[in-house]
């Protein structure tokens, strides 16, 4: 059944970059869809499917929310003078109340804003899924792996019997 949900989501959204490591390293408490301010060559490079958000994070800068260290490579077809900086900081578009709530959580509770996915929505607009996360310790990571293995074994046993 979860495969059906993933297929439906893939039809609605075209995922460009996925941070699979985030769910391993963090407890994701809440997710939020935000817009990204991009240059034309960045959008073209994203449409070609070449981006990496594995090492990136979001945070405040001058009272606004920015995406740091996301790698969108230069667009090959554009002339060198028209291209963008691959790891430049990019402004994230968030409603003012959501921004205040997120920054409050980050300051008070020590949470981190982790990018989970970068995708194009139904209208073709580039969006970023941010996760409000807390770091996992090594024991937590082991516990998560143990639960995942048990779920897989349980599903295998049920398939064999049924």
From TrEMBL:
Coiled-coil ranges per UniProt: none
CDD domains: SmpB
SUPFAM superfamilies documented for this protein: Small protein B (SmpB)
Subcellular location: Cytoplasm
One annotated GO molecular function: RNA binding
NCBIfam families in the cross-refs: PRK05422.1 (NF003843), smpB (TIGR00086)
Cited function: Required for rescue of stalled ribosomes mediated by trans-translation. Binds to transfer-messenger RNA (tmRNA), required for stable association of tmRNA with ribosomes. tmRNA and SmpB together mimic tRNA shape, replacing the anticodon stem-loop with SmpB. tmRNA is encoded by the ssrA gene; the 2 termini fold to resemble tRNA(Ala) and it encodes a 'tag peptide', a short internal open reading frame. During trans-translation Ala-aminoacylated tmRNA acts like a tRNA, entering the A-site of stalled ribosomes, displacing the stalled mRNA.
Name recorded for this polypeptide: SsrA-binding protein
